[in-house]
Design brief:
alpha/beta; Rossmann fold; seven-stranded mixed β-sheet; 11 helices; 7 strands; S-adenosyl-L-methionine; methyltransferase activity; Ubiquinone/menaquinone biosynthesis methyltransferase
Length: about 260
């Protein structure tokens, strides 16, 4: 579970931030709290169905792409999403039970500290090449028709303007080979004010029960300060318009959702 000690540590480091976080402030925040955000046992209980969604993504990814060779993990953090994917891949392939899968990973994150943690962890899960890029996803240049799977876990909500969202999704579509899979797990906006209010009331109750009221307030302040999510249905519409052939929702719980698109 999320420990009170770690919650206090994160809250203290967040108090000096401005009203709206810049890219540099986001980088600094996650770099300073790499240990916490790299540990699924610490962070996932605070995210509605977080572990379930990552497990679903890994399971479906292996089912859709049984011969995974190239994975892009965008906003990889501590590498939790890729770690679970590689575990699933190894467990589903009998010939890999006693050896590591040969999967090349491209890891992208703002924080070099996060990347170092992810690379160290994932090197134990794959015999393939791991490349890291400490970069803003809006400035990223990707190879065309290259990846079998792209993972975006709790990262796209940092995009600000509609053009940034559209450009990012278009680039991800271009980077996938035909038939390849995009997976997104993220905080999503809720356009109806009444549904939004109810969802965040319930989420707040969940956070208070999971940790305490102080942590609930920290999470809500953090979302207000740092995150600009788009609605799930808006994102689904954009993915279809860009040219993804199949788009499906894996799971949605209040303000969090996991979804999949196939090129």
């Amino acid at each position: 579970m999320v420990s009170k000690k770690n919650v206090d540590r994160v809250s203290l480091k967040q108090q000096t931030s401005r009203a709206v976080s810049s890219v540099d402030q986001i980088r600094e925040f996650f770099s300073e709290n790499t240990e916490l955000f790299s540990d699924p046992d610490q962070i996932m209980p605070a995210i509605l169905d977080g572990q379930l969604c990552l497990d679903m993504i890994a399971t479906v990814a292996v089912a859709q792409q049984p011969q995974i060779k190239r994975v892009l993990d965008l906003g990889c953090g501590g590498g939790n999403a890729s770690n679970l994917l590689l575990q699933k891949l190894q467990s589903k392939a009998p010939n890999l039970r006693n050896q590591l899968p040969d999967v090349n990973l491209t890891l992208v994150d703002l924080s070099r500290e996060m990347l170092q943690t992810a690379e160290k962890s994932l090197a134990k899960r794959t015999s393939g090449i791991i490349k890291t890029h400490a970069q803003d996803i809006r400035k990223l240049s990707l190879k065309e028709n290259h990846y079998d799977v792209i993972l975006c876990s709790l990262v796209l909500h940092h995009l600000r303007h509609e053009r940034e969202w559209l450009d990012t999704y278009k680039q991800l579509h271009t980077a996938l080979r035909p038939g390849a899979s995009l997976f997104v797990f993220d905080l999503v906006d809720i356009t109806s004010s009444s549904i939004h209010q109810d969802a965040y009331t319930r989420y707040g109750q969940y956070l208070s029960k999971t940790v305490d009221d102080e942590y609930r307030d920290f999470v809500f302040d953090h979302i207000k300060q740092e995150d600009t999510p788009r609605s799930l249905l808006w994102q689904i519409d954009q993915l279809r318009a860009i040219g993804f052939s199949e788009v499906d929702i894996l799971h949605k719980h209040l303000c969090y959702a996991a979804f999949n698109a196939i090129k």
